[in-house]
Design goal:
Layout: E1 7-12, H1 18-28, E2 31-35, H2 54-57, E3 62-63, H3 76-93, E4 96-100, H4 104-108, H5 122-145, H6 154-157, H7 160-173, H8 177-185, E5 196-202, H9 205-222, H10 224-231, H11 236-239, H12 244-252, H13 259-284, E6 289-292, H14 298-311
Parallel strand pairs: 1-4, 1-5, 2-3, 2-4, 5-6
């Protein structure tokens, strides 16, 4: 009989404490780890992404790290293809897979269809970008609406990046935004046939605040500014990432931003991300088990999680 790996997920907000638990849990699950972090895919972007140390990877094989250079864009479609290849590897190895991380769309791609097969040529991308530069947000909105009915919430309707993506696909297909949405909704999640269980790690707000500040100080102590300086040109996803965006701005404006202000801007941006992550996990991801790590010791937390896994489908 063909072995079909189980897909287990360990997620939670930035700085909640996923790494240490993931190493122990992967052993319990007879599994390997797949990173679910859109920044850890970039080579040499180690400090700002809090990438797991090489020595820790020797304990459990890790996938999804160091897949491309900082100047190369890596998107969720590429991640899905890569994740499918790792699942195929687990079949051959007769191992389960523990997916660890908190990047929203990467995580959601295991439970819903999040991409389509519409390829937008670079010439079309440049065309819609030029339209945005010349006519602004209102020009994008008029162009999107010119193809027919629009079904977007206020946030997306005023999001240039979202509209650029839609307009590019409209120019390729000739479809209205509503038709594109309906076509997309009929797509099938590529992992729908697999056993999937999600474990959410949580902490009290005050505790998480302290961990965010401590993590930021640790990054600076390890040389975050030097890391960003040495990365060179950053692709848009990496250039927009927390820590990398703020440090890049700091380096491009010498003398205008103090190190204290730089650190505070990273803390504020991380707090905002955590707020979005908490909402995303609860609304977009099917949570099977959650535990507050502030209310238990590490060993207790692991025992509770282990009991859940053993009682909810784990097989070796």
């Amino acid at each position: 009989m063909e072995f079909v790996p189980q897909l287990w997920f360990l997620t939670g907000c930035t700085a909640v404490g996923k790494t240490d638990l993931s190493l122990e849990l992967a052993q319990l699950l007879n599994g390997e780890i797949l990173s679910c972090d859109s920044i850890q895919v970039y080579r040499r972007a180690d400090i700002g992404s809090a990438k797991i140390k090489p020595e820790c990877r020797k304990k459990i094989p890790h996938h999804g790290l160091d897949l491309c250079d900082p100047s190369e864009t890596f998107d969720v479609g590429q991640y899905i293809t890569y994740a499918q290849s790792i699942v195929d590897q687990m079949k051959k190895k007769r191992k389960n897979l523990l997916v660890v991380g908190g990047t929203g769309f990467y995580l959601k791609s295991f439970f819903s269809n999040v991409t389509d097969s519409i390829a937008v040529p670079e010439v079309v991308r440049r065309e819609v970008q030029l339209l945005h530069e010349n006519l602004g947000l209102e020009g994008l909105q008029r162009s999107v609406a010119s193809y027919g009915p629009v079904d977007l919430n206020a946030s997306d309707w005023h999001n240039p990046r979202r509209l650029l993506n839609i307009l590019g696909k409209q120019k390729v297909t000739g479809l209205s935004q509503l038709e594109l949405k309906q076509k997309f909704s009929r797509g099938i999640c590529p992992f729908a046939s697999f056993f999937r269980r999600v474990i959410l790690l949580e902490r009290h707000s005050e505790s998480l605040e302290g961990r965010i500040e401590g993590r930021m100080e640790e990054m600076f102590g390890k040389g975050l500014v030097e890391e960003v300086k040495n990365l060179g040109h950053l692709c848009p996803p990496l250039g927009r990432a927390i820590a990398y965006r703020q440090v890049k701005n700091y380096l491009e404006n010498p003398g205008k931003i103090t190190e204290k202000e730089l650190k505070q801007s990273i803390i504020v941006a991380t707090r905002q991300l955590v707020k979005k992550q908490r909402t995303w996990f609860r609304r977009q991801i099917p949570i099977d088990y959650s535990i507050n790590l502030d209310e238990h010791s590490f060993n207790e937390s692991f025992d509770f999680i282990g009991s859940f896994c053993k009682n909810n489908g784990i097989w070796i």
